[in-house]
Amino acid sequence: MNSSPPNSGEFGQRPATTGTIVPKSASEALRPEPGTPPPPSRRSRASRSQIVVFMNFVVTCIMLMVLAAGVALYFGRQEFNGPGPSTVADTFVVKRNSGVKEIAEQLERQGFISDSRIFRLGVRAYGNDQSLKAGEYEIKPHASMREIMELFKSGKSVMYALTIPEGFTVEQAFQRIAEQPELTGDLPATLPPEGSLATDTLRFTRGATRQQMVDKLLADQKKLVEEIWARRAPDLPLADINEFVTLASIVEKETGRSDERSRVAAVFLNRLAKGMRLQSDPTIIYGLFGGKGKPADRPIYQSDIEKPTPYNTYVINGLPPTPIANPGKAALEAVANPSRTDDLYFVADGNGGHVFAKTLEEHNRNVARYRALMKKQAEEAAKGGSQPPAEEGAGTGVLPAE
């Protein structure tokens, strides 16, 4: 017999290097080894490699973008909340119907913020695109963009004041309104009646109109006069509300002392009740110069006292046809509820007040003392090179004494 080994390719595996042959059946020999992957396709491997590279690129880009956005958001937030570049307080006007982009660009041009884009994005991030209000605002030094945004959102505009002092005529009040630079528009072409404007301080924002100021002053004075007239003393010798305002305007021009207005009013009302002429110096001035007022360097001459104007209460009986100024609340109250006194005269005491008298004899003594005081002051002024004090407004019947 042939002792050589059988052909291992037919019935089993090739002997291992260890030399041991493990016989297998034909089916076992044809079955693939467990866990042996099929041979990879060269094309599919290349395709997977390109997808992985692309996805890695995309993820890297996204991460870089997120990182850049985070950095930009951080520094943008720091810039939005940090101190601004302005070094002094100044005003800024937000015009009506202005968009955030326009406002931001103007802020940057005027040096209030460093970057208009950051301001615009910050306003949008806080949801305030439609919340910024028109107006004029005072921006503090180094105000942050957020502080500016909150200021514009609040609507707390810069407020201006228009003051019409007691005793101003309508013409003088119109002149002051015309000279207010923050107001816009024209004044009414026709002056309203004398005494019809309130003597008050009005608050307004830049861009308000002069017509609005006049309308407000007219409405306030009408309301005030009607309220005080409605609660007047019952026995006043006044025919109507026009006479009431006219006498109040005379009281306004005669004294600025709150403690003697009602007594001055009582003197004029007592004289009206007795049919005496009022003899008030301010009425002479209004008859001569009207609403423009007397020039400061123009004295009242003796000839002025005798000029027959409709307002000269040294010549006419009773009250002038209209007020001679706009009376304030205190003067109106004084006429509506005067002091209970029998005084018929008063004259200046030389110290800002007046001395009152019930009789002409007593009044003439007071006038003599007043004139002596004026003479002494004039002599002292002449020595010092200054102007002597004027006599107008001294009281009833001072120029001349009765």
Provide a concise account of the structure shown.
Helix content is 46%, strand content 7%. It has 402 residues and is mainly α. It has a two-stranded antiparallel sheet with strand order 1-2. A two-stranded antiparallel ribbon has the order 3-4.
Characteristic terms for this protein:
single chain, 402 residues, mainly alpha, Dna Ligase, domain 1, two-stranded antiparallel ribbon, 14 helices, 6 strands
Structural description of this entry:
With 402 residues, this protein is mainly alpha-helical. Among the domains are: 90-154, Dna Ligase, domain 1 (2-Layer Sandwich), CATH 3.30.1490.480; 159-223; 238-384, no CATH class. Helices cover 46% and strands 7% of the residues. It is built from 14 helices and six strands. It has helices at residues 8-11, 26-30, 42-81, 100-109, 116-125, 145-154, 170-178, 210-230, 241-254, 261-274, 281-289, 302-305, 329-336, 360-384, and strands at 90-94, 135-139, 159-163, 201-205, 345-348, 354-357. The strands form three sheets. It has a two-stranded antiparallel ribbon with strand order 1-2. The longest helix has 40 residues, at 42-81. The model is unreliable at 6-13 (pLDDT under 50).
